[in-house]
Design a protein that fits this description.
Length: 265
């Protein structure tokens, strides 16, 4: 089952009860069962339990499960929960964005890479809104305003400005445009007047991951925005070597079966 293609920039998909919304630099998935299997976080992530309930993540580096209604996870953190008896929302931000770097700063300061977060009153998380997100009834404007309110709170909490430094922006755009290609570190570094080692260190410090790991996020994100009716074509178009490579990456980094994050036409 698929939703009608919207006229705005928000892309909507629904597969086996998992509803996915995709914006220019974010991916939001809503699940009636919050099936969050063990995985390595591919991008800065906000996990929200269904309103009035909690979600548990068994994170590496934590002796006890992290139980909360809101959890932030930094890229590269490992965790999951095989049994969660509530619905939930998973909001990924592009790691280069200010919101993505805010989550990385906040959650990355903890050994497990996870942080219990108190959801601010400014962010609407009512049962009605969750239900409409799950069923695809929320408008594009509502969704965009909601994720913008989350961004604002993350930036305020982290102290980061809503800006992307021009060198970081240039490199990230080059990686997004060709997520399957070989990373030409020397050329990219030359574009901004640096050496390749300096660029690699700068990117890792600013974004919280290597450029090659960022490419993985770009591939997964691009696979979701592809308009091809063939799942294999979507994965190849996104830069994966083959369909098997793409499926393994989705399982490893999103913590859900690949069939649940690929659209059906």
């Amino acid at each position: 089952m698929s939703f009608q293609k919207p006229s705005s920039a928000v892309i909507r998909k629904r597969v086996h009860g998992l509803t996915v919304y995709i914006g220019p630099d974010w991916l939001l998935a809503v699940d009636r069962a919050a099936e969050y299997m063990r995985s390595m976080t591919v991008a800065p992530l906000l996990v929200l339990a269904e309103p009035g309930k909690t979600i548990a993540i068994h994170a590496d580096g934590s002796e006890e499960p992290i139980v909360s209604n809101a959890i932030l996870a930094a890229p590269g953190s490992v965790g999951g929960s095989p049994t969660v008896d509530s619905g939930g929302l998973f909001l990924y931000f592009d790691p280069v964005t200010a919101a993505g770097r805010a989550i990385t700063r906040l959650a990355g300061s903890h050994p497990s890479g996870h942080l219990q977060w108190t959801l601010p009153d400014a962010v609407d998380w009512s049962a009605d809104f969750f239900s409409r997100l799950l069923l695809g009834g929320a408008t594009d404007l509502e969704i965009d305003q909601w994720q913008a309110s989350v961004r604002s709170e993350l930036l305020q909490r982290s102290g980061l400005p809503d800006l992307i430094e021009w060198r970081l922006k240039h490199v990230a755009e080059a990686l997004r445009e060709n997520p399957g290609g070989r990373i030409e570190s020397d050329r990219l570094a030359g574009d901004i007047g640096w050496s390749a080692p300096h660029l690699r260190d700068y990117f890792r410090i600013q974004v919280g991951m290597s450029m090659s790991k960022y490419q993985v996020w770009c591939r997964i994100f691009k696979a979701q925005t592809s308009l091809s009716s063939s799942a294999t074509d979507r994965l190849l178009h996104a830069g994966f070597y083959d369909a098997s490579h793409g499926i393994k990456a989705i399982r490893k980094y999103l913590g859900v079966p690949s069939s649940r994050v690929r659209s059906r036409s």
